[in-house]
Specification:
homotrimer, 150 residues, mainly alpha, 5 helices, 81% helix, elongated
């Protein structure tokens, strides 16, 4: 089990480190723009950084969940690669949003697409496992058999 | 392991899809009520949809955590059924909250109760496993023995 | 698998219960200070409790993720102890923040340090597993061999 998940584990730890980096940026922005907790509104520069971090935090559990269901039920390698791409796009999203509200859009779209790919992988993997366990049907074998008939 | 968790995995992917649906509703509401990021305040109609999504996002990791601890340590079948009920109630909560602040209450209470059931299952399952692993006591067997003595 | 994770499972359920407790405090504060949803601003007493809960919720998935990667790839015992300490510090953070904005700082720093320790454990454990699985190198054995040469 541990052996089959070391790639997912590595991407997960990178993701946690990225969230820690975003949190630190909010702390620095609070100091720079003099916005003391519990206040969360201030100059647009502060609000953009605050919202960028809030948005990444909100998606973090969804990302981790999709990464692991995709990695466990579909493919660890493909999921880990997608995970790295997602984390890189989130970094570019954060930097872009800190610059301007428009700067967040391009990397946000790519990160959303990567998340959809992970969700697709998870769905395929779970459907395949479900058929194998509960219906005793191996879809890959059936597919190979069907292709052989052609 | 993968075989024992396919039901939990399916509920998890449904939960991720539900969160994606909520996020899309916030994007549509931002357009409809002209509330551009990073602003999060606007007309009450927008704020209700925004808060409904924020609340569901906040509870998502708690739900996923309780679903899996309950499924792994107690029963996959019962946990998956509770998980489906929770996700359905969250959908009704979101729709109800979008209508009116009061509309969120009834499904919120049910979803909270389902979450408590999952927490209860987790606690029982973990306590049982703990007794078996560290105290070498099988509570189910002891219970059966005690009942047999009556 | 289940046997090796019962400590992590117990800390996880405690963490879920703590989040439930924080959520209840926000509900009580909403009643006490008459702040009806979807509004999230009000008197500073309310805003501190609201932000304390929001901050704990934001860190909850990061904590759970670090707890499990550390527990699975490094050591269940050490991770569980760190997890208990983290949850205790989050409780003191919440109570401190409810009193005053300054009251949150000391326990926040300790909880952040415990989180860094869990991230460190995870990194070491994943690096060690990676070397063993993909490079066929057992770092512990190599280290013992190197020490034996001295």
């Amino acid at each position: 089990m541990v052996e089959d998940a070391v790639g997912l584990g590595a991407v997960t730890v990178l993701g946690v480190l990225e969230q820690a980096y975003f949190s630190l940026q909010v702390i620095y922005a609070r100091r720079k723009y003099s916005v003391s907790p519990p206040t969360t509104s201030g100059p647009p520069e502060f609000e953009r950084i605050f919202r960028a971090q809030a948005n990444c935090s909100e998606y973090f559990p969804i990302f981790i969940t999709a990464l692991w269901t995709s990695g466990v039920f579909f493919s660890q390698g493909l999921s880990s690669v997608c995970g790295l791409l997602y984390l890189y796009m989130r970094l570019r999203y954060f930097w872009g949003y800190a610059e301007s509200a428009n700067g967040r859009l391009a990397p946000l779209y790519v990160s959303a697409q990567v998340l959809w790919i992970l969700i697709g992988f998870s769905s395929v993997g779970i459907f395949h496992t479900f058929c194998r366990v509960y219906l005793n049907v191996d879809l890959l074998q059936e597919l190979g058999f069907a292709l052989g008939l052609l």
